[in-house]
Amino acid sequence: MAQPTPLEASLGALIMTFDKHAGSGDAKTLNKKELTNLIKAELHNIAGVRPVLDHTITLLNTDGSVDFKEYITLIGSLACATCVLIGLP
Ligand SMILES: [Ca+2]
């Protein structure tokens, strides 16, 4: 099997990270504690985009849980915010 490209490896990391933190209770969603743990463990180096993170979580977490689609939306928002921070288009 061919070596995964960096983007393919990143997709795998996104999936595995969600799975790792969503494990307790409903394994298909992150509850508030699981989401908090994911952010502390996996996103602690991106303090510059913390306002975007907090705002996005507020928008997504209206029902008290974050499913995979909402998680991917959060990651996409963070990617966009990071691009702005580092001056990319
Ligand atoms: Ca869960």
UniProtKB/TrEMBL annotation:
CDD domains the UniProt entry points to: S-100
Annotated GO CC locations: cytoplasm
A Pfam family: S_100
Ranges of residues in domain S100/CaBP-9k-type calcium binding subdomain: 7-48
GO MF term list: calcium ion binding; calcium-dependent protein binding; transition metal ion binding
Superkingdom field: Eukaryota
SMART domains: S_100
PANTHER family: PROTEIN S100, S100 CALCIUM-BINDING PROTEIN
Protein's UniProt name: S100/CaBP-9k-type calcium binding subdomain domain-containing protein
Species of provenance: Oncorhynchus kisutch (Coho salmon)
